[in-house]
From TrEMBL:
Keywords, ordered alphabetically: Membrane, Transmembrane, Transmembrane helix
Organism: Nocardiopsis kunsanensis
Protein name (database record): MFS transporter
Transmembrane portions of the chain: 71-92
Length: 100
């Protein structure tokens, strides 16, 4: 947990930078990789995934705590999932645009 004081301020600042960075990357990457024709559809899909993850994450953490008595296995598992996705992104190729 985050204790009051400087740690809480630092946590908030890092969280804000990360969220803003994610928005900036999404705003630049989606049109770059997929064009602007289906941008609304892609944004809707990414927002749906984001909302679903905020609903599923706490459930997974509570299940991990019930199973092990600690949140640590759940946090480590979700952290490993994030790391796996970060590595997978490095190997993503630019989609080929088909001409009709």
């Amino acid at each position: 947990m985050v204790s009051p004081g400087l740690g809480a301020l630092l946590y908030g600042a890092v969280l804000g930078v990360a969220a803003s960075g994610a928005r900036a990357v999404e705003s630049a990457a989606l049109p770059f990789y997929f064009g602007t024709a289906g941008l609304g559809t892609l944004r809707g899909l990414t927002q749906s995934v984001a909302v679903a993850s905020t609903a599923v994450g706490p459930i997974l953490l509570s299940l991990a705590r019930g199973w092990s008595g600690s949140y640590l296995p759940g946090v480590m598992g979700l952290s490993m999932l994030c790391a796996l996705v970060a590595v997978a992104v490095c190997f993503a190729r630019r989609p080929e645009h088909r001409t009709v």
